[in-house]
Amino acid sequence: MSDNRRIVPVGAAVAALTLGAGVFGAVHVATDDPAPSDGRQPAFAVLPPPSAGPLPNAGSTSATKTTTKIRVAAAPITVRYTFDGGVDKPIVDTNGRHPLQPLAQNGGNLALVPEGAGLAVDFPERCTLPRERDCPRAILEGSRDDALNPGTRPLRYGASVRMTREDLADGANVVQKGYSVGGVSQFKLQVDHRQGHPSCVLAGHSRIYRAEPALDIADGTWHNVSCARTGSRLTITVDGVERASVPVPASMSIANAEPLRVGGKGPNKGNDQYAGQVDNVFLAIG
After folding, report:
1. Which end is more exposed in the chain, N or C (fewer Cβ atoms within 10 Å of the end residue's Cβ)?
2. Rounded to two decimals, what is the model's pTM?
3. Contact predicate 218/191, CB 8 Å
4. Torsions phi, psi for 177 (to 5 deg)
5. Domain-embedded: residue 173
6. Is 125 inside any structural domain?
7. How far apart are CA 113 and CA 111, in angstroms?
8. Which residues contact 203 (CB under 8 A, 6 or more apart)?
């Protein structure tokens, strides 16, 4: 991006970050992830992805395999990430739970940048390399947590996002759980296409539902985007104003063994990498 973003200083080398052992295990930086040439350090230590295989895309039926029963939230739950804790603490929600782990490939970096009185996450710039497989990628990913499966319960989720025209692509996933193909089920917020339209997505085992307003939010300013599933309707709200809605089956259950992810559907090729900044990610069930 061409703006004057400031990366929050983190002092010594990445390997010395206390976001290491005792938080996510022995965190180490991928060998193809050098420090920025201007001497600044990434705000997050990043882990190489667990595998280099492709992620599920249209026409694919592969996803995280599980041998245990998939459950849904047994009680109302609210999760919110402000990212204001800095880099010397685990990346957890405001209640100190549901940790997120940075994952990266091809030198992708995540950084913390000032936003108001707190901090926001800055994702890798939009890649312009001729081969997508060579692009830097980085996301935040939790672990399997069936308590974040809404089933048929009322659901709200969203984030604050800041993007410019240079950040746009055909796929830019902000926050999601699950996949829209392969019968996995999913809820997702994305800013897709070159028009900069935000959209909310719910996917069951056989159909995808998307609420997408003809609204361009890639204007370099912050926008609060939220999705709400209540009964048989999915609604998208931008900056406090309802912008679009679509009907969804009241009986459609969203439940999967996938983790909560922020910034893409994984760190590997074809991950619908988000570019820009994200803050105040939230999820509320019930």
Report:
1. C
2. 0.81
3. yes
4. -140, 120
5. yes
6. yes
7. 6
8. 178, 179, 180, 181, 184, 185, 186, 187, 188, 209, 254
What are residue 151's phi and psi, to 5 degrees? 60, -125
CATH no. for residue 28? 2.60.120.200
Q: What is the pLDDT of residues 119-135, one digit of tens each?
A: 999 999 999 999 999 99
Q: Are the C-beta atoms of residues 176 and 188 closer than 8 Å to each other?
A: yes
1 is a domain residue:
no
| Cβ-proximal residues to 48 (8 Å cutoff; 6+ apart), any chain | 30, 103, 104, 105
**Helix, strand, or coil here: 15?**
helix
pLDDT tens for 229-268 read 998 999 999 999 999 999 999 999 999 999 999 999 999 9
Q: Give CA–CA dist 130/138, Å, rounded.
A: 19
* 266 in a structural domain: yes
CA distances from 280 to 133, 162, 214, 236 (A): 30, 12, 24, 16
Cα–Cα distances in angstroms (integers) from residue 138 to residues 151, 167, 235, 278, in the given order: 29, 14, 29, 13
CA dihedral (37, 39, 45, 47) in degrees, to 10, reads 20
Number of domains in the chain: 1
3-state secondary structure of 187: strand
Rounded CA-CA distance 240/261 in Å is 24
Closest listed residue to residue 187, CA positions, set 173, 172, 203, 199 = 203
Pair of tokens at residue 159:
């984030």
Q: Which two tokens stand for residue 113?
A: 């940048």
* Alpha carbon distance 168, 166 (integer Å): 6
